[in-house]
Amino acid sequence: LSLDTVRDFLTREEDTIVFSIIERAKYPLNLPAYEVPAYFAGSRHDASFAELFVRDSEAVQTKAGRYQNQEEIPFFPFRVPFILSPSYNFTSDLYPAAAFVNLNDEIWSIYFNQFLSLLAKNGDDGNYAATAASDFLCLQALSKRINYGRYVAEVKFRGDPQNYTTLIRNKDKDALMKLLTSESQEDVVKRRVQKKAMVFGQNVTSNGPVETGDSNSSQASFKVDPSLVYKLYDQWVIPLTKQVEVEYLLHRLD
Ligand SMILES: O=C(O)C(=O)C[C@]1(C(=O)O)C=C[C@@H](O)C=C1
């Protein structure tokens, strides 16, 4: 585990995030998937269709062993007596007492309450299950990336244990945030994801050159507005990753 390898991981995860939001943008908003039907209120199904879809999908993937690797954390943890996949002895580089840190609740809420209406066009085509399936992929990709802040923080702690230890003992969140921040790196990340949205989301035809999205071409030629992907990282993904890093560090000496 080194700063280079964790950054390589975050870079590769960008592809998954961009592809998954391009897929979600195929469908209109499909609002009924996110509302709790009145006839469910108070019952054990008191949740939106999208939530029920994620719960059941995660239950299947938990049984299949998906969360045996600590890199991924389910939104709805689910206990199973045994798992179906061949066993594998995952080692973890995380500090055990801090490994639980995650921001899945915040990710869930931002995705449904703030991001989705910026991504999907208004409308309802009834494809609720396909829509929820693509939401699930977006949520998994975002969760994996943001909660990977635990690994980034572990690397940073090991690289400078003395300074981090002092700040952790003082529970100085602001100073921890400052010490782990690299504004130049954040800038690289945001510009790169915007470019990925242009490259992965361009319209490809069999003849003529590949359209490269320069800043003059209209945004309508991209499947997802590249500036929305920039905003996703600028306002949510990077700040939440940093919050995960701080929370992890606060438990790093427990
Ligand atoms: O690459 C790092 O050093 C990270 O901590 C990750 C990250 C990010 O979310 O991309 C977060 C904080 C830093 O300011 C820079 C980048």
From TrEMBL:
<dbReference type="InterPro" id="IPR002701">
    <property type="entry name" value="CM_II_prokaryot"/>
</dbReference>
<feature type="domain" description="Chorismate mutase">
    <location>
        <begin position="129"/>
        <end position="245"/>
    </location>
</feature>
<dbReference type="GO" id="GO:0005737">
    <property type="term" value="C:cytoplasm"/>
</dbReference>
<dbReference type="Pfam" id="PF01817">
    <property type="entry name" value="CM_2"/>
</dbReference>
<keyword id="KW-0732">Signal</keyword>
<protein>
    <recommendedName>
        <fullName>Chorismate mutase domain-containing protein</fullName>
    </recommendedName>
</protein>
<dbReference type="GO" id="GO:0004106">
    <property type="term" value="F:chorismate mutase activity"/>
</dbReference>
<dbReference type="GO" id="GO:0009073">
    <property type="term" value="P:aromatic amino acid family biosynthetic process"/>
</dbReference>
<dbReference type="InterPro" id="IPR008238">
    <property type="entry name" value="Chorismate_mutase_AroQ_euk"/>
</dbReference>
